[in-house]
C-alpha cells in the first residue's frame, strides 16, 4: 500500500510487494544500510546498537529482522524488547552504544511500522546522515561479516524501569509533592507500550491509576493519534471515576495529551505550554518550538523573562535550534516535550513528571490551570494542487502579497500578523499546500484558513 523513505527513517504498511510496502526484504535492506553507514562513519571495530519496539502486531517480526541483519554485519545489539521511543533514546548513551533503532510508526494505524534511526547520543539523525543511508540503501551493496565475526544480541528488558528512575531523579520532578497531592489519574495507553510505561511511572510517583487500553497487544482500540475526536472513551471515564485528570499517549509514547477533571481536552498544544511555564518559573531561559506550534509558548516565555525562537517543522530541527539558543525546554505543539536535562528527544514520561509537579505546586484543578494560559485556536487545512503547478512560486507570491508583515521562510512561508498567524508548507510527497492558522477564536482561525485558500486559488488563476 505504501512505503515512505525519508532522512529520519523508513515507514510503510506491512505485507504486499517489495519496494511498495514495508516487507521483510525492505526491512533487511534498510537495516543493512544503517549498519553499513555506522561501520563507515564510526572509527571503531566493535559497534553496538540499541533496538526497541512499540507493541505493534508486526513489531516482533520487524525487530528480529532488524537485529539479525545488524549481527550479520558484525554489529552487537542490545535488545530492549517492548519499549518506547524516549526509552530507546535514553538507553543509547547509558549503554555507550553507537546508535539506536526504534521500531514504531508512531501515531499511524496498526498496519504501519517503521525504522527510526538514532546516533550515538540517542538523537535522530540529521539530514545529511539520513541522505547517506538512503543512498546506501538504493545501491544495496552490502559487505556482511564472516562466521567468526558475527555480532551478538544481549537482551535487556528492564529499560522502561531505568527510564522511569531517570525521570524521577530530575531536579524539577518533585516526587514528594506529587505523592502528597493524592492524584487519581486515568491512563489511555492505546494498547501499546505507553500502557506499560505511564502506569509504572505514576505508581512510582504515588498516583492512583485507572488503566484504559493498557494491554500492550498492538490492537489499537481507536485511531492512535491523540486528538479529541479519538478520545471519547477516556473523557467519559475521567468523569465516571471522578479522576483529577486523564493522560493519553501515542503508541511510541513521545506525544502527550491531558484530559481535565471535567472530561475536556486540555489541548495538545498546551502540553508544552504548561510544562514550559513550570520550568521557566524555576529557571529563566529560552524556549523553542516549531513554526506550526501555538503562539502561547512565546507568550509564556516572555512572561517569565525568557525568549522564544521557532524552528522548521521536525524534531531534529527543534533540537538543533534548542542547542543553538541554549533553550531549557522546547518541543512540538503535538504534545512533544523536549527537556535537555533529561535528553534531547520528545518524552511523555518527562512531560508527565513536570506537569504533575506543576499541578501539585499550584494546588488547582486541571481546568483552572488551562484558564491561566492565553486562549488560541488552530485550524489545519490543505489545498490540493495539480502536479504541473509551481508550488514554490505560489508560496513566493503569497510572501510578496504580505511583505509588510513579519515573515519567516525557514520552512515554507509563515506570516505573523498582530492577532493571528498563517503557516503554509508544501508537501514533499504530493502536490498540496498545508495551511495552518491560529487566532483568538476557532471561527477566526477557520475563516483565516479559508481566506488563504481563496488567495492561493486567485494566484493560480
TrEMBL record:
<dbReference type="Pfam" id="PF02878">
    <property type="entry name" value="PGM_PMM_I"/>
</dbReference>
<dbReference type="InterPro" id="IPR024086">
    <property type="entry name" value="GlmM_arc-type"/>
</dbReference>
<dbReference type="Pfam" id="PF02879">
    <property type="entry name" value="PGM_PMM_II"/>
</dbReference>
<dbReference type="InterPro" id="IPR005843">
    <property type="entry name" value="A-D-PHexomutase_C"/>
</dbReference>
<feature type="domain" description="Alpha-D-phosphohexomutase C-terminal">
    <location>
        <begin position="404"/>
        <end position="454"/>
    </location>
</feature>
<dbReference type="InterPro" id="IPR005841">
    <property type="entry name" value="Alpha-D-phosphohexomutase_SF"/>
</dbReference>
<keyword id="KW-0597">Phosphoprotein</keyword>
<feature type="domain" description="Alpha-D-phosphohexomutase alpha/beta/alpha">
    <location>
        <begin position="270"/>
        <end position="375"/>
    </location>
</feature>
<feature type="domain" description="Alpha-D-phosphohexomutase alpha/beta/alpha">
    <location>
        <begin position="8"/>
        <end position="142"/>
    </location>
</feature>
<dbReference type="InterPro" id="IPR016066">
    <property type="entry name" value="A-D-PHexomutase_CS"/>
</dbReference>
<dbReference type="GO" id="GO:0008966">
    <property type="term" value="F:phosphoglucosamine mutase activity"/>
</dbReference>
<keyword id="KW-0460">Magnesium</keyword>
<dbReference type="InterPro" id="IPR005845">
    <property type="entry name" value="A-D-PHexomutase_a/b/a-II"/>
</dbReference>
<dbReference type="Pfam" id="PF00408">
    <property type="entry name" value="PGM_PMM_IV"/>
</dbReference>
<keyword id="KW-0479">Metal-binding</keyword>
<dbReference type="InterPro" id="IPR050060">
    <property type="entry name" value="Phosphoglucosamine_mutase"/>
</dbReference>
<dbReference type="InterPro" id="IPR005844">
    <property type="entry name" value="A-D-PHexomutase_a/b/a-I"/>
</dbReference>
<feature type="domain" description="Alpha-D-phosphohexomutase alpha/beta/alpha">
    <location>
        <begin position="171"/>
        <end position="263"/>
    </location>
</feature>
<protein>
    <submittedName>
        <fullName>Phosphoglucosamine mutase</fullName>
        <ecNumber>5.4.2.10</ecNumber>
    </submittedName>
</protein>
<comment type="similarity">
    <text>Belongs to the phosphohexose mutase family.</text>
</comment>
<dbReference type="InterPro" id="IPR005846">
    <property type="entry name" value="A-D-PHexomutase_a/b/a-III"/>
</dbReference>
<dbReference type="Pfam" id="PF02880">
    <property type="entry name" value="PGM_PMM_III"/>
</dbReference>
<dbReference type="InterPro" id="IPR016055">
    <property type="entry name" value="A-D-PHexomutase_a/b/a-I/II/III"/>
</dbReference>
<keyword id="KW-0413">Isomerase</keyword>
<dbReference type="InterPro" id="IPR036900">
    <property type="entry name" value="A-D-PHexomutase_C_sf"/>
</dbReference>
Amino acid at each position: 500500500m505504501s512505503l515512505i523513505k525519508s532522512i529520519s527513517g523508513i515507514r510503510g504498511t506491512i505485507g504486499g510487494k517489495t519496494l511498495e510496502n514495508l516487507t521483510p526484504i525492505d526491512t533487511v535492506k534498510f537495516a543493512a544500510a544503517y549498519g553499513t553507514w555506522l561501520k563507515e562513519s564510526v572509527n571503531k571495530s566493535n559497534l553496538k546498537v540499541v533496538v526497541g519496539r512499540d507493541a505493534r502486531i508486526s513489531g516482533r517480526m520487524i525487530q528480529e529482522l532488524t537485529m539479525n541483519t545488524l549481527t550479520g554485519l558484525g554489529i552487537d545489539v542490545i535488545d530492549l524488547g517492548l519499549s518506547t521511543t524516549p526509552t530507546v533514546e535514553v538507553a543509547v548513551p547509558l549503554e555507550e552504544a553507537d546508535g539506536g533503532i526504534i521500531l514504531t510508526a508512531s501515531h499511524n494505524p496498526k498496519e504501519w511500522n517503521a525504522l527510526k534511526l538514532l546516533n550515538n547520543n540517542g538523537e535522530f539523525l540529521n539530514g545529511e546522515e539520513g541522505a547517506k543511508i538512503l543512498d546506501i540503501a538504493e545501491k544495496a551493496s552490502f559487505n556482511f561479516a564472516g562466521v567468526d565475526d558475527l555480532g551478538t544480541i544481549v537482551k535487556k528488558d528492564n529499560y522502561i524501569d531505568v527510564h522511569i528512575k531517570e525521570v524521577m531523579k530530575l531536579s524539577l520532578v518533585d516526587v514528594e509533592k506529587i505523592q502528597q497531592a493524592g492524584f487519581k489519574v486515568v491512563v489511555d495507553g492505546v494498547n501499546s507500550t505507553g500502557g506499560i510505561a505511564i502506569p509504572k511511572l505514576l505508581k512510582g510517583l504515588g498516583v492512583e491509576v485507572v488503566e484504559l487500553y493498557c494491554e500492550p497487544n498492538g490492537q489499537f482500540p481507536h485511531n492512535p493519534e491523540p486528538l479529541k475526536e479519538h478520545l471519547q472513551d477516556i473523557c467519559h471515564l475521567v468523569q465516571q471515576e471522578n479522576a483529577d485528570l486523564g493522560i493519553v499517549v501515542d503508541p511510541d509514547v513521545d506525544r502527550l495529551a491531558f484530559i481535565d477533571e471535567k472530561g475536556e481536552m486540555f489541548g495538545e498544544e498546551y502540553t508544552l505550554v504548561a510544562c514550559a511555564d513550570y520550568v521557566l518559573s524555576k529557571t529563566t531561559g529560552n524556549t523553542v518550538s516549531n513554526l506550526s506550534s501555538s503562539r502561547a509558548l512565546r507568550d509564556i516565555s516572555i512572561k517569565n523573562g525568557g525568549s522564544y525562537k521557532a524552528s522548521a517543522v521536525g524534531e531534529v530541527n527543534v533540537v538543533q535550534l534548542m542547542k543553538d539558543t541554549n533553550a531549557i525546554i522546547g518541543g512540538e505543539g503535538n504534545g512533544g516535550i523536549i527537556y535537555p536535562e533529561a535528553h534531547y528527544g520528545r518524552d511523555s514520561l518527562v512531560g508527565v513528571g513536570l506537569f504533575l509537579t506543576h499541578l501539585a505546586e499550584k494546588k488547582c484543578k486541571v481546568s483552572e490551570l488551562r484558564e491561566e494560559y492565553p486562549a488560541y485556536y488552530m485550524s489545519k487545512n490543505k489545498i490540493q494542487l495539480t502536479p504541473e503547478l509551481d508550488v514554490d512560486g505560489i508560496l513566493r507570491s503569497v510572501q510578496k502579497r504580505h511583505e509588510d508583515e513579519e515573515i519567516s521562510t525557514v520552512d515554507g512561508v509563515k506570516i505573523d500578523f498582530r492577532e493571528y498567524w498563517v503557516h503554509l508548507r508544501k508537501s514533499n510527497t504530493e502536490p498540496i499546500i498545508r495551511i495552518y492558522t491560529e487566532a483568538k477564536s476557532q471561527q477566526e482561525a477557520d475563516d483565516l484558513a479559508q481566506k488563504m485558500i481563496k488567495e492561493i486559488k486567485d494566484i493560480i488563476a
